[in-house]
Amino acid sequence: MIGCHMGRIFQVTVAGGSYQDGLTAVIHGHPPGMLLSEQEIYGDMLLRKPGADELSSPRKEPDLPIIYTGLNAADTVEGAGNKNHTNGTPLTILIPNLDRHFIHIKQYQDTNRTPRPGHASYASFMKYGPDDDAIGAGIFSGRYTSTIVAAGYVAKKILKKCGIEVFSYIKEIAGVSCPDIDHEKTLKYTEDYKKMRNDLDPFYQEIYVKNRINMDMRFLEKIKVLAEVENEIDAIRDKAPKASAEEIKDKYGVHPIVNCPDIDAADAMVEACNKITKTGDSSGGIVEVVVTGVPAGLGEPVFYKLDAELGRMLGIGAVKGVEVGAGFAVKNMTGYESNDQMHSENGKVVFDSNHAGGITGGLSTGQPIVVRLTVKPTPTIDRPQKTIDKYTLENKDLEAITRRDPTITGRIWPVAENYTAMVILDHLIAHYGYQAIKDK
């Protein structure tokens, strides 16, 4: 399967499946000397995991990562203080599947002859044949995006050291849109939203804050704890810190469910989505990613244009469109309206608009990079649908399925954020090298 690798300098390879023993992200090209912990990686991963709120699937995967390779197991010299620092070798992050029970496997076995419309199940069967990993959709399941979040967190941490911020939020759900908001305010909001989710996540509190897993433990000791957690998932979830919607809004200044920097719009999104869910159907939406602090000139021409590389986020499950800047709206503009005019101010170039989304000719302009992703409605719905038997080609009726996400949009934004970070870092490392040689 050659499609599970990306990057030229910062490289990531992912593996695993929804109902295999777990998933893996292997990272190459990160620098040595970076202190890294499972707790901070999980802090991002919990943002996309299922079962967190009323707009996500009831699956109870805790998505607890284990760093398996790439860190120093001890100080390399006594007193060096570089234990748990990256050492420049490939970094491997394991994500064991803990909510994997036979009752759910049997549900897939009973329905796998009849592909679900909107899913990859028919196409993957045609590609891989009867041995296709059809239990839980395998690597075509949304679960594989946990590997993108894990690897992308590492990229995002490196970018932050370089003065580059990558953040994302929900722009639209079920036809309800968030108005345009200043990037600084949006960044602050998303940081507050992430803090809220960390503070109220039962596994973050039970596993990391209470120190059941820490970076002084060996791999087998951590796995022993995960084996215990597998039998405690419901009990740990019951320990979730309690806070009402109003308490969350008062304490954190964010919406309790939707990462949208306009709380009124977020309320309307939830209401519109729930209205559709009650009919047995699902909703789509739009996610926006913003990158600030990028130097001008990042990217390459033709095949490795920066916007073309970001367009590869079509590889995220459920994403059906990617636009940069004004995107498809340019069709209704004139050239004069679309062009981002510029002027000099105190020795710096200032643009009067950003319809290009911070990228022209495949190269960054130094403005904020703005990317939007359209997310299709969840294909698994609580309504009967027409399908076929993939072995006999007989016409069949597909039963309604209730274990699903009312919308996937709320779980896509952390994936888009961290995927963008991987693309930007890959280009940034090349850019630094190119500029260093050019200036010799």
Would you mind describing this structure in some detail?
- The structure is a single chain.
- The chain is α+β, with helices and mostly antiparallel strands and 440 residues long.
- It has one domain (5-438): 4-Layer Sandwich (Chorismate synthase, AroC fold).
- It is built from 13 helices and 16 strands.
- The chain has helices spanning 38-45, 102-111, 121-128, 145-161, 183-200, 202-209, 219-230, 233-238, 245-252, 263-277, 306-310, 335-338, 409-438; strands at 5-6, 11-16, 22-28, 66-69, 91-96, 165-173, 176-177, 285-292, 319-324, 342-345, 348-351, 359-360, 363-364, 369-375, 385-388, 395-398.
- It has a five-stranded antiparallel sheet, sandwiched between helices. A five-stranded antiparallel sheet has the order 7-6-8-14-9. It has a two-stranded antiparallel ribbon with strand order 10-11.
Number of strands: 16
Return the CATH topology: Chorismate synthase, AroC fold
Give the percentage of residues in beta strands.
15-25%
Going by helix content, strand content and strand pairing, the class is alpha+beta
Query: What kind of sheet is the major sheet?
Result: 5 strands, antiparallel
Rounded average pLDDT: 92
Strand order of the largest sheet: 1-2-3-5-4
**What do we call the CATH homologous superfamily?**
Chorismate synthase AroC
Order of helices and strands, N to C? Answer: EEEHEEHHHEEHHHHHHEHEHEEEEEEEH
CATH architecture name: 4-Layer Sandwich
